[in-house]
Specification:
Length: about 400
């Protein structure tokens, strides 16, 4: 008999992917240029040329050695390169044994949760949150506890986190720069969170793990993105190159269990065990090798910065309310009616594909992915105008 829980998950479409699929259909019907698709976070900037050059060079190597298995956690030489990058960039004593290479941040988070939770535990998320957190928390048999971000700045509401931590709490997931709101948590905010977690650890007499989900670390518009392990040693960093190097389909990222935590070796061992148990061993080897060479490549955020400017100026002139994004490539816009799904449905009539906020855990907003062609953004502004007018007339 099939597993009902898995069937339900397979059957339940993600709001983002559903809208993305609708967009593909609609583009086939009316032409791609006539649909303003803000649905999915697929980077519009190409991967750096060095990625291509490295792949082409690797193709000249002995294919048997090139395509073979690596150890489960990844090629030691690649982990060495990533550890060196972390040491140089953040001034922390990172060692390769604390790194586990993964198929993107998705696997990194699923593995990390499995490593530090037990069925029945609670995991705190800050709402609005990336919808897949619910799936991974559920897979571990844990409960999701939502703590709304503070309004209007969408920083972590540290007092609310303190109030939410109880005897069953084992971990908290944070994501900065944030999907969907584009907030970047300030040093002061993260320091306050760290202080609360330390105090609660002392009170509970056991560890509280901070899982820092960081696919957007490199995508900022000038804001500082503090390195979380420096502020709270019991941090597990889940980072991917899906967005920063524009490689979402190549599935490469890592888990870094901070060397600074007192139980570092045991947590890294549990991560290795969870990776093994979930079948996430030996991340794609060609991409591992690319990573070794491209780990220091900067992200090209110029196009996103320009898109952000055009979109925010355009929407602001039309009277839309939104959260000013400091990072990532999403704009969190207030729906023009309380029901975000109804607003998203109405937007479709203007060929605007906007993801309703409900699956992110809050009502009344929509998310716009502005990692799209600049021209699409410019041409979409009249549609936003018409959408707004449809509520006024
Ligand atoms: N976490 C957040 C906040 C994301 O936005 C995404 C992808 O969009 C992921 C995790 C998953 O990243 P990856 O594609 O590297 O698995």
């Amino acid at each position: 008999m099939i597993n009902e829980k898995m069937h339900a998950l397979g059957d339940e479409p993600s709001a983002i992917r559903e809208l993305f699929a609708y967009g593909m259909e609609r583009k086939a019907q009316v032409g791609a240029d006539n649909v303003f698709d803000y649905s999915i976070g697929n980077p519009s900037v190409p991967a750096p040329p060095k990625v291509r050059e490295t792949i082409l060079r690797l193709m000249e190597e002995d294919p048997v050695a090139l395509h073979g298995y690596t150890p489960a956690a990844g090629d030691p030489a690649v982990r060495d390169a990533v550890a060196r990058h972390i040491r140089e960039r953040y001034g922390v004593p990172a060692t390769p044994g604390q790194l586990y290479l993964t198929v993107g941040a998705a696997a990194a988070i699923a593995i990390s949760l499995a490593a530090v939770t037990h069925p029945g535990d609670e995991v705190i998320v800050i709402s609005p949150f990336f919808p897949e957190y619910s799936t991974w928390i559920g897979m571990c048999g844990c409960e999701r506890v939502e703590v709304p971000a503070s309004v209007p700045d969408f920083q972590i509401d540290v007092d609310a986190v303190a109030a939410a931590i109880g005897p069953k709490t084992s971990a908290i997931i944070i994501n900065s720069p944030n999907n969907p709101v584009g907030a970047v948590y300030t040093r002061q905010n993260l320091e306050a969170l760290a202080a609360v977690l330390r105090a609660k650890e002392a009170e509970l007499g056991r560890p509280l793990y901070l899982i820092s989900d960081e696919p957007y670390r490199e995508i900022t518009y000038g804001a500082e993105v503090p390195y979380v392990p420096c502020l709270y040693p019991r941090t597990i960093v889940c980072l991917s190159y899906s967005k920063s190097l524009s490689l979402p389909g190549e599935r490469i990222g890592y888990i870094y269990v901070s060397d600074l935590m007192d139980d570092a070796a045991d947590v890294a061992c549990a991560v290795a065990g969870a990776g093994r148990a979930l079948g996430y061993i030996c991340a794609p080897v060609l991409m591992q090798r690319v990573l070794a060479e491209c780990v220091d490549e900067p992200s090209d955020v110029a196009a996103y910065a320009e898109n952000r400017r055009i979109l925010t100026e355009g929407l602001s002139a039309l009277g839309y309310e939104y959260v000013e994004p400091d990072g990532a490539f999403y704009l969190w816009v207030k729906a023009l009616e309380p029901d975000a799904q109804a607003f998203s449905d109405r937007a479709k009539a203007f060929e605007l594909l906007l993801v309703p906020s409900d699956s992110f855990g809050v009502p009344g907003w929509v998310r716009l992915s502005y990692c799209i062609a600049r021209d699409t953004i410019e041409r979409s502004l009249p549609a936003f105008k018409a959408l707004k007018e449809s509520y006024e007339g």
